[in-house]
Amino acid sequence: MDTIRFGPDREPWRWRCGWRLPRQRPGRKAWLIVVTVAMAAMIAVVLVSSGRGGRRSVRGPGLPRLLTGIAARRSYVGLFLGGENLWWAGQRPQPVAAALLHNGLSPLVPRGHGAEVDQLAAVRGGVVAHISDISTGITYGALGRVLFVPAASHGPASVIARATMIAVAPGGRRVWVQTAVQHLNNGAGVPANFTSPTWAVNLAGRRVSPVLRLPFGLAGATERGPLTQNLDTGRLQLWSGATGRALRLPVPAGADFVAAGQGRLVWDSYAPSPALHVTDLRTGSDLSVPLPAMWVLPSHQFPPPPASFNPSGRRLVLPLDRADSAGNLTAEALFVIDLTTRTLRMIPTEPVPLPSAVGSLADTLAGSWNARGRLWVLAMNPYYGYYQLGYWTGAGPLHTFPIAHGSPMTLSTPRPNQPPD
Fold first, then answer.
1. I need a labelling partner for 58 at 20 to 30 A (CA). Which of 43, 245, 337, 361 fits?
2. 118: Cβ–Cβ under 8 A, 6 or more apart, which residues?
């Protein structure tokens, strides 16, 4: 098993972006069909831009604010940030870069290729990170390494699998992985009947399930097994983790995956009106939460925007985009969904404006609860290469830290440590 130890990264940051798509809203299923072509084109543009110093320069104390609130006092952070580097933010909000990704390059991919943490998820005692090679002509992500990273800046990070996409099973002790396809039909798309090897590993890297042949499009995991969303048809399907048999999933054919946890599936629909749905996978009961007027779930980014449950499983945080009367996306904000009262609440900070230029890389928001119920917020501008952290206690204003240089795109807070199975 490969082992990498953390260390400081003092190299200058260079603009890179692997899988992020332009901020425009096609149909909810359209990205499932065109993502292979869009990603290949995006990667080609990014590689040319990065070779020419494509990142815009923003310097000095006059950086535009991303989050509004009150200045945070010294606070223990205890979270991981992922993007063109992997950071651990511990005693103070300024992250410490890992040797795992060094100036956008990684010892885990061939020399001359770029690497990026495009998925980051909490597990027992740390996080798992998916590091993909973004410089190849890829479809639906890239074949990369899956690492278990302990919740300490000095701990060893161990490679536990190779995969395209990952999904953490309930309990945080095992991870479902699905292998990648590097080239398929010259970018013509993924056939509806295409399948891919899918299996679960524990945090030591040992396989703990049969190897299943499932539709390409691992979306999430439940107590009963993995969830897939077919890239061609958009169909969401639940599978037995023991046999690979399709299980009954009490949601309509047009359901779009948002999150899974606590024995529930969160999905969205836009007919007859925009709403989030929470379906109990054991009883089949469903409750719907109407989306605020002119706010929609992002469809511009891939993997789908992260959604995080709080420790009790009663609240969910996820980003929403605001659209004007012409359908243009103008701003993004984080909302907390209370699954008990069926209400949404915007966290107390101003929505982040989105640029109007087609194809531009926009400010983006993500949130993650820690074990004590504090909501950590990440706002980033990958185009200009800076970001800002903040936290919310659930009452009062948002507590914000100073803006820092870098381009993290996701964050995760480790779960309490328990021995892996």
1. 43
2. 18, 19, 82, 130, 131, 132, 134, 141, 144, 303, 409, 410
| Residue 118: burial class (beta carbons within 10 Å; 0-12, 13-18, 19+) | buried
- The CA–CA distances, whole Å, from 169 to 163, 212, 302, 339, 416 equal 16, 16, 20, 21, 15
Q: What is the Cβ-side half-sphere exposure of residue 201, based on CA atoms within 13 angstroms?
A: 21
Please report the pLDDT score of residue 75 as a whole number. Answer: 74
Task: List, for the chain, all residue ranges whose pLDDT scores fall below the cut of 50.
Answer: 1-61, 139-140, 184-187, 300-302, 357-360, 419-421
Sign of dihedral through CA atoms 241, 304, 196, 215? positive
- CA trace torsion 155, 157, 160, 162 (10° rounding): 170
Q: What is the pLDDT of residue 40?
A: 35
Q: Where are the alpha helices (DSSP H) in 12-68?
A: 30-51
Q: Are 367 and 308 in contact (CB under 8 A)?
A: yes
Q: Rg for the chain (alpha carbons), in Å?
A: 20
Distance CA 216, CA 138 (A): 14
Other CB atoms within a 10 A radius of the CB of residue 292 amount to 14
How many angstroms separate the CA atoms of 186 and 174, rounded? 34
* Coil/strand/helix, residue 180: coil
- d(C-alpha 299, C-alpha 50), whole Å: 25
Name every residue whose Cβ is closer than 8 Å to that of residue 291 and which is 6 or more positions away in sequence: 268, 274, 275, 276, 297, 320, 344
Paired tokens of 85: 């580097």
Q: What is the pLDDT of residue 118?
A: 84
H or E stretch at 348: none
329-370 tens-digit pLDDT: 888 999 999 888 888 999 999 998 876 544 445 558 899 998
The encoded tokens of residue 215 equal 């539709």
Residues 237, 251: contact at Cβ < 8 Å?
A: no
Whether 23 and 300 have beta carbons less than 8 Å apart is answered as yes
**Numbers of helices and strands, H then E, in the chain:** 1, 33
Contacts of 130 (CB under 8 A, 6+ apart): 117, 118, 119, 120, 141, 144, 145, 146, 163, 165, 166
Beta strands in 217-314 (DSSP E): 218-221, 226-229, 236-239, 246-247, 256-261, 264-269, 275-280, 286-290, 295-296, 308-309
